[in-house]
Specification:
alpha+beta, two-stranded antiparallel ribbon
């Protein structure tokens, strides 16, 4: 029997709709990854006021807990408080505030964190402490 059933047709249509949704959601992240610098290059330092918050980024100098391990020796702060940043293998950056949408540079990451915080203070992660 080679005729298609209604159930099979609906299943194919649902699968196609799901694939379109996944591709649409991956668009911004894929664009950020495409624009990301090579994983081996060092990002530029920055110091600016963005939406009323002071954001800074630059090479870590051994004082931060997370910078040396995940951020590749790079530290980002918001109003003087360290933002835990991580560099992905493809050269993009994520943080504990902006974890599911990788961005190309730490400056973009700090700006995204400020937008997500919406005026709330950044509370740094303490070693061995879990969020509930």
């Amino acid at each position: 029997m080679s005729s298609i059933t209604r159930r099979r047709a609906l299943g194919v249509a649902a699968g196609a709709a799901g694939a379109v949704t996944v591709l649409a959601q991956a668009g911004p992240a894929a664009a950020s990854r495409a624009a990301a610098p090579a994983a081996g290059s060092d990002p530029a330092s920055f110091d600016e006021v963005y939406r009323g918050r002071r954001i800074r980024g630059g090479p870590a100098h051994g004082g931060g807990h997370h910078g040396e391990h995940h951020g590749g020796g790079y530290t980002v702060t918001v109003d003087g408080r360290e933002l835990h940043v991580m560099r992905n293998a493809d050269g993009t950056w994520i943080s504990v505030i902006h974890h599911y949408e990788p961005v190309a540079t730490p400056r973009e990451l700090a700006r995204a964190a400020v937008r997500e915080l919406r005026g709330a203070p950044l509370v740094p992660l303490a070693p061995g402490r879990t969020l509930r």
